Amino acid sequence: MSNNLLNILNELSSNPELESQYKQDPDSVMSKFELTDDEKSLLKNEDTQGIEAALQLSGDKGSIQKIIKLT
Asked: What distance lies between CA 59 and its chain's CA centroid?
C-alpha cells in the first residue's frame, strides 16, 4: 500500500471541510489522493482491520475506527 492511504486518513482527521466533502462524495475526494482500488475499497467498507494491516499498524485501534467512521 502507498502512503496515499495514510495521507487521506490524516487529512480527513484534521480537515473538517475535506471530511464534509468526503461525506457528500467520497469518490471525488479519494480521486484527489490517487488511491488504489484496494485502498478505496478499504475506506468505502470502513474495513478497520484491513486499513490497519495495510498501514502495518498496531496499538490503539479506536483511533483508526474514529477516523474512517465518517458516514
From this structure: 17
pLDDT in tens, 9-43: 989 989 999 999 999 999 999 999 999 999 999 99
**Residue 69 to residue 66: CA distance in whole angstroms:** 5
Alpha-carbon gap, residue 32 to 62, rounded angstroms: 26
- pTM for the predicted model, two decimal places: 0.77
Burial 30-66 (b: 16+ CB within 10 A, else e): beebebeeebbebbeeeebebbbebeeeeeeeeebee
State yes or no: pLDDT of 71 exceeds 50: no
Diameter of the chain measured on Cα atoms: 31
SS3 7: helix
Kindly state the cell numbers that stand for 24.
Answer: 457528500
